[in-house]
Amino acid sequence: MLVVLPVRALWDLLVAGARGARRHVLAPLGRGVGWVLRQAWLYVLRPLSLVLFYWPWVGLWRYVVVPVGGAAYTYLLRPLGLGAAWLCVAFGRYVLVPVGSGTGWVLRYVVVLPAGWLYRELLTPVGHGLRWLVRGLCMVVFVWPWVGLWRYLLVPGGRGLAWVGRHVLVPAGNGLAWVGRYVLLPPLSLLYRYVLLPLGELLVGAWHIAGRILRALGRGLRRLWRGWVARPAAWVYRQVATPVGHAVREVWRTSRAAVREARAEVRRMLFGGPPGEPARSRARTLGSTTAADAAPAPEISPRKRRG
């Protein structure tokens, strides 16, 4: 308990602080930020985007591109296209067809027949020779070295490794497995079953008990605070401090009024002037905040009164 109780107390304080921060700070802040962003989108960004990026292009397409494009197609592009098509048909019929026929005859008897003879009598034997030469070079450079490597090095090496694995590694692995199963595993299982598992259960139980103790201690401290501090302080404030404060306030106001009247009498005695009517008492009741008399007589300096 001496080890777990402080850790549990610190954990409960952190959890309580995090919950309070999330409840009273982060959640209202998130709601406020979401409301502000939503209002900004609804009343600022969305209308601004419509004004800047939607309505100008819609108006341009509707009132400029579509009318201008329709008129241009009807009165310019369609007649030009029909004229160009007629010219192309006429050019193809009266120019290209005769030229193509003559070109075909020339190509057949000047190019195709000589090229066929050249291909059969010269290029074909040369191609066969080059293919035989390239095949031989590829076999010498890329096939026979790898075949020899596989046949005389990798296959015997793989057989040797297989023999080592079968006669060395497998028995060694079986021996290690037997040692782990019958030598190491029983002590480890006993250690887990009789030491680690009870220790973990003990720590979990101590953690829960510490939580209950801290909750009970918190409830007791809260009740002690309410019974011995909060309620007596409230009673003293209501029954003692409030009446005493009212009485002190009234005494202060009465004293201040008496001092003000005495100062006015002294000024009249020193500088002269018409005798002023003595101000009545402006004392207030303890339960009222309204003055019992009218406002006090204004203090007028002798110079202003003479003037």
TrEMBL record:
The record's keywords, sorted A to Z, are: Membrane, Transmembrane, Transmembrane helix
Which residue spans traverse the membrane?
Answer: 44-64, 76-96, 102-120, 132-153, 191-214
Its name, as the record gives it, is Integral membrane protein
Residue ranges, annotated region (Disordered): 271-307
Q: Any keyword rRNA processing?
A: no
Keyword Transmembrane belongs to the record: yes
Tell me the leader sequence span.
none
